[in-house]
């Protein structure tokens, strides 16, 4: 309840700061008997890892995960699985010039006001680096959901700044550093990012996540709805400013005769609902969209104040993602996996 | 935790079905010593009440609230406040023709599959009627937040189907049945709704909610963020398919040099963040947008199946809101109040 | 989570004050499809009801339960079951003389200091009357556990003040007002109570509760252990000052070679563990003992202070139980049922 | 909710197995700004450490704690504090002979039945070694409670098997390996333990814990009472079979005129309540007693079964505590600190 745990029956407790000793999480509630290795988790961490292309932060973090507990002879024992990722590349000097100032649009300001103390090294706990434990925990959930229920969770980038990325094929998503489901648009994306980097600016993006083969009946009627929990985890992802399900904001101009998905004995005829009706999964694909803001750490000078309230000019040097949306896809997949895992366990409880 | 409770330190447990004996909630965690009467709560319930104009459902429910506990000599005692609303207008015959069929876009289908049993009377627990206890609890939170911290929470409709409603003045919101902040647009809205009613169709809407004078520092860095909790409650409101904060989905095409709100000794120069940075309130106004889908209960015939999986044609008669967005404003305000109340108490815990 | 709810997957939220409008609870998480009537619940409430013999409080409360929600056509729907008990016999004048003073050994003092306001009518929320909703919720859990798993939960009084009550037969428990499992000792108990009532004093008691046919494997290794949860609910019962499981405090002088229950292919040879090993149920009977203090509301004059801190003499008139232990048996059974119900659902979640 | 976390606002999530890579915990909810070093925590861990006298297990574990997060420049930042203790002395061969059999009185049996898989190395997660993270977390709570509210929490052994240990002085507790508050009795305790070790048997014990300067008003009226939470943590401590507060089981034979603590303007005249009235702290010393069973790991041969259900004879070799009660005092102190810490934060929330 103190704010760093997620989930009721599959609970993930996150800890760590960007440039502290280590980051990690404790997964509590993983069913016993599943084969689980560090490689299973490392695969997803590597998809999110920094430094894999020139379009993301050049910080070199191997993000190597170590399982500390909860596994015996290669299988989960039903007890907490603690995961540890050592911080290695700690060039904290890059941040020294901003430790007393607040970057416009950054959590510096709110952390300082909330806690009265702030770890400025690499953004401390507000760093997007803290999504790595989420991805690690999500890998465990993904594996279990896949093996037990055949659930498949995948995501892609559908828009980078002004460039819309038409969906072509899931097969393309792994072939480029943008998680774009379309080969044709890659040169345009690369040119856009190269220009942006020269400007020293950053840009927003839109991510889609889809879950297939989701059991019917996940979610509770009021408050603990599945859509509510999805919105919770997605809006809680760094830099997200909007979350929608199914038709999303387009539903505003839809009439009921268009929006309501007709049903036949062979299934639904459309999916404006995004797989959720009345807060409960319908068995259709769950489709989620995220709006991700441009990062606040940019080279362009901006007006701000320091911790004394005096006016200052802030310019963020160091190694930052010019588009945090680029690495967001595996994180969004992990978050959706964590929500579904929790709800599947809850559903099992009442059977 | 079994799904019908909201909040950690200010907990609301919701119960009831649309046409059962009664609906209500238990509020646990209201600080002692606040003056509280049924009139304080009734005021907000009346704003949400059905039957107040020809544009909403004609069901006649007085929605009279009764306080069962937690008050002594007019003041809160710090113990649970149970609120009861008797169901009075139970014309359940209107629903008889749909008890074995699933309305396209309605929770009928998922409830049936989840529970194997379903109260079909007026939608049972999936009815929007179950937002009344939320509004009642929100009234308590609103009052406390106003008295203790001067927080003001208000909302309005910014779009009804294709008609955008430019913000003109808060003063207009109470003068029309749409919660529209603009007098000029009312005739257009009324004409649109009258035509829609004749068609037997329904329409979506967009609602904005704003909280002013919010204390800085509400929300936790990871998972229990303020933005996450807002998204949770808002997406959990019946018919909502999208939630955004501040710039929302517009942030996708914004550059960091535009999105990041610059700060001066006199305050922020813009509010793209919507009052939340890194998941924590910044002291700026919190601004939230909701996309509300068209209701699925329409007179137009639609394809569907029945509980045996056979194809049927469904047409929903009875008394329904052609635009559930019209009555959503007070509910969205209540939900924001509940989230803020909970986070303010949490903040007090660590002081 | 603000303190008046119990259980994670079978959650009971309690509300009300002794002489307020009503008391009750919301049960959230009852599986769908169980036949449930008010009579099922009333049966247990009647076992706890005041006024059934001259040895308990003469307050006349019928404690009639009303189901407000969660049932459709006689079956649970899987949604919250709200239970309401109206308060009828409200002779609040009896308490007027103590509203500004603190009874030695009573919660008056702590409520006043905690909340700064106190409902003095009948003890307000500190009244043992508030165990009625717990008994009602326990009746639902008992029924489900019995039907689904064959679990049987029974209790009895094993000591009243200085009089030990040897266990003779479960059949006797319902034949006397003490829940004593022994017919021979009844005259002695009655004589003791009659003398005590004349003195205007009160006395302690010891209660045993036993659960049979409990599934193996309930409880988690660390923190959320089954023994911990049993201790939690039992110590939280009004007037309880001690809780033990199996050998209890006798284990202090036992050697390991005596205490550890040997196992054969036909089962355990003893049950010093009380059915729980390492916090997890072993399938043996769960055996729990409670020490219940004498009530603080006695006619004998006692030294105390008033709300101004001045010395006063306190004498409690009105209708009180001279031995609250007498009515504690059905409450303790209900509490054990609630704990087991919650853990059985949790166990099902991970299967 | 998955069972390995304790506390609502000061949450401790425990992980690890006796002979795995490491054990530890994540503390979530420690207020920001407190000076905290590893030495503060190590001090309490050393009090619980094995191998410090011939009367406890000879396993050599330095139990060195490492802080992984949540501290910046020597102060808590308000974010999760992850604590890690590497396992070093892993002589797992000692346990090979029991991996397929169940020790009478041990959690072997229930873990196997619950999870279908069991880490047999040193008892895996059922080992008393897993109390080390609890002690570490308790050290943080103790420090904060002391600095902020002057709360002092201390414990001692009051009985070892048949030998009662009269309280003489707190000063003696640290002078002997038994945490006995009495120098005179030490030779008798040592002789008893030496004889017991030769027999290869084990013995129970009784521990007292006392908290002084506890703020008035901690605990909620129903369910989340302070006494309930104390019982929860104490009964959840390995080997505990009974918990009592204040007069405890002696209250059974007390009359109300004796038990109820009279109050004067200068304070209470006795403390049969053990500092808690109606579930809420009264400001008096909180006094708790624990009954600790003899460990099940003894050299004496015992009847049991193996995982195939066949009869076997079990004899536990290896390094075990002949009286787990001896090292229980610092753990019980830590648990009381954790409960009080949580309730103090909750109290602050409502101020």
TrEMBL record, chains A, B, C, D:
Q: Where FMN is bound, by residue?
A: 125-127, 238-239, 278, 293-297, 319
Q: Which Pfam families match?
A: Chorismate_synt
The record's catalysed reaction(s) read: 5-O-(1-carboxyvinyl)-3-phosphoshikimate = chorismate + phosphate
Q: In which pathway does it act?
A: Metabolic intermediate biosynthesis; chorismate biosynthesis; chorismate from D-erythrose 4-phosphate and phosphoenolpyruvate: step 7/7
Q: According to its UniProt record, which cofactors does this protein need?
A: FMNH2
Q: Name one GO molecular function term.
A: FMN binding
Q: Does the keyword Transferase apply?
A: no
Among the GO biological process terms of this entry, one is: aromatic amino acid family biosynthetic process
What does the UniProt cofactor note say? Answer: Reduced FMN (FMNH(2)).
The record's keywords, sorted A to Z, are: Amino-acid biosynthesis, Aromatic amino acid biosynthesis, FAD, Flavoprotein, FMN, Lyase, NADP
Q: Which GO terms describe its cellular component?
A: cytosol
Keyword Transmembrane helix listed: no
Q: What Enzyme Commission number(s) does the record list for this chain?
A: 4.2.3.5
- Per UniProt, NADP(+) binds at 48, 54
In the record, the note on similarity to other proteins reads: Belongs to the chorismate synthase family.
Quaternary structure annotation from Swiss-Prot or TrEMBL: Homotetramer.
> What does this protein do, in the record's words?
This reaction introduces a second double bond into the aromatic ring system.
What name appears for this protein in its UniProt entry?
Answer: Chorismate synthase
């Amino acid at each position: 309840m103190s704010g760093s745990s997620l989930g009721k029956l599959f609970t993930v407790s996150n800890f760590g700061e960007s440039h502290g000793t280590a980051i990690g999480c404790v997964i509590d509630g993983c069913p016993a008997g599943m084969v689980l290795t560090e490689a299973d988790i490392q695969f997803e961490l590597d998809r999110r890892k920094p430094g894999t292309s020139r379009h993301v932060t050049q910080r070199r973090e191997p993000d190597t995960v170590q399982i500390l507990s909860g596994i015996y002879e290669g299988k989960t024992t039903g007890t907490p699985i603690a995961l540890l990722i050592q911080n290695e590349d700690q060039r904290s000097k890059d941040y020294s010039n901003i430790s007393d100032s607040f970057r416009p649009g950054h959590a510096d300001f709110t952390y300082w006001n909330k806690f009265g103390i702030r770890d400025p090294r690499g953004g401390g706990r507000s760093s997007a680096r803290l999504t790595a434990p989420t991805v690690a925990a999500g890998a465990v959930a993904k594996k279990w959901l896949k093996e037990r229920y055949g659930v498949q969770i995948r995501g892609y980038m559908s828009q980078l700044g002004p460039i819309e990325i038409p969906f072509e094929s899931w097969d393309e998503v792994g072939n480029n550093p943008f998680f774009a489901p379309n080969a044709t648009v890659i040169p345009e994306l690369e040119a856009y990012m190269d220009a942006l980097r020269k400007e020293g600016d950053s840009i927003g993006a839109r991510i889609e996540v889809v879950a297939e083969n989701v059991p019917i009946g996940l979610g509770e009627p009021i408050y603990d709805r599945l859509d509510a929990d999805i919105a919770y985890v997605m809006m809680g992802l760094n830099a997200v400013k909007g979350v929608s399900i199914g038709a999303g904001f387009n539903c505003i101009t839809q009439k009921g005769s268009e929006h309501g998905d007709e049903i036949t004995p062979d299934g639904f005829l459309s999916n404006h609902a995004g797989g959720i009706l009345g807060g409960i999964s319908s068995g259709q694909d769950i489709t989620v969209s995220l709006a991700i803001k441009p990062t606040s750490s940019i080279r362009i000078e901006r007006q701000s104040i320091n911790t004394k309230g005096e006016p200052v000019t802030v310019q963020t040097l160091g190694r930052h993602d010019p588009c945090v949306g680029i690495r967001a896809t595996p994180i969004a997949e992990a978050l959706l996996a964590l929500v579904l895992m929790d709800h599947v366990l809850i559903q099992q409880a009442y059977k």
